């Protein structure tokens, strides 16, 4: 089995505060994991560790074979994170933002690919508008366009449905399915359990940094019961 994610005994401390406690889980390629739990349960911390943005205090593991501790630069090459903050350059246009991130990643997309990505997320007519004029929902649509162009093997989504209308939420679902259908994997952290479970194969529940449930999607009903 080709593992996208293999975590063993992950813990993360911020001073005396414990964000994650001895968390272990695996995720095969071709599957999506819904990561559920209340605010402060450790979901965002876990995504940042997987993405290589921060390291674990204890424990270890791999992301597509890259070590969480020793290969954090390599982690960033195989993961794509849609965070709560979308991190665009306000003084650049939507098109320029996509061009910049692709240039920084060393990629030269075929002609028309940027326009196609913007069309897919409903931003074609705003391609040359500066991002400072965008609503929060438009910024998240632009972030989805960026992820589609980068095509990460492991997609990490942190509350991706926030600030999105129904059509844009459907775009998130389509993005998840697209990644898994091409053999990648997805970890989707969300408060919208019903929506997250509908596009996932597995579910993990975090409570106060502790993994309290891990199993197939159909097991979640028994857990909450």
Please characterize this protein's 3D structure.
- The protein has 225 residues and is of the alpha/beta class.
- The chain has a single domain, classed as Rossmann fold, CATH 3.40.50.300.
- The chain contains eight helices and ten strands.
- Strands 6-7-8-3-9-10 form a six-stranded mixed sheet, sandwiched between helices.
- Strand 1 and strand 2 form a beta hairpin.
- The two termini are 31 Å apart.
Topology:
Blueprint: E1 3-14, E2 17-28, E3 32-36, H1 43-51, E4 58-63, E5 66-67, H2 72-78, E6 79-82, H3 94-104, H4 113-120, H5 136-150, E7 154-158, H6 166-181, E8 185-189, H7 193-198, E9 202-207, E10 210-216, H8 220-224
Parallel strand pairs: 3-8, 3-9, 6-7, 7-8
Antiparallel strand pairs: 1-2, 1-4, 4-5, 9-10
Helix pairs in contact: 3-5, 4-5, 5-6
């Amino acid at each position: 089995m080709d593992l996208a994610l293999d975590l063993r005994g992950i813990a993360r401390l911020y001073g005396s505060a414990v964000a994650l406690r001895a968390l272990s889980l695996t995720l095969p390629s071709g599957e999506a994991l819904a990561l559920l739990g209340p605010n402060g349960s450790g979901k965002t911390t876990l995504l940042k560790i997987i993405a290589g943005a921060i390291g674990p205090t204890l424990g270890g593991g791999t992301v597509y074979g890259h070590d969480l501790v020793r290969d954090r630069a390599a982690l960033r090459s195989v993961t794509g994170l849609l965070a709560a903050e979308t991190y665009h350059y306000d003084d650049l246009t939507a098109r320029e933002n996509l061009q910049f991130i692709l240039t920084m990643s060393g990629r030269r997309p075929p002609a028309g690919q940027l326009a196609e990505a913007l069309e897919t997320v409903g931003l074609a007519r705003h391609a040359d508008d500066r991002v400072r004029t965008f609503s929060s929902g438009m910024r998240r649509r632009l972030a989805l366009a960026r992820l589609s162009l980068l095509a990460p093997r492991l997609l990490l989504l942190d509350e991706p449905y926030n600030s999105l209308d129904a059509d844009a939420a459907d775009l998130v679902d389509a993005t998840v399915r697209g990644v898994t259908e091409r053999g990648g994997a997805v970890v989707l952290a969300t408060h919208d359990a019903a929506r997250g479970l509908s596009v996932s194969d597995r579910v993990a529940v975090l409570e106060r940094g502790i993994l309290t449930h891990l199993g197939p999607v159909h097991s979640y009903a028994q857990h909450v019961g």
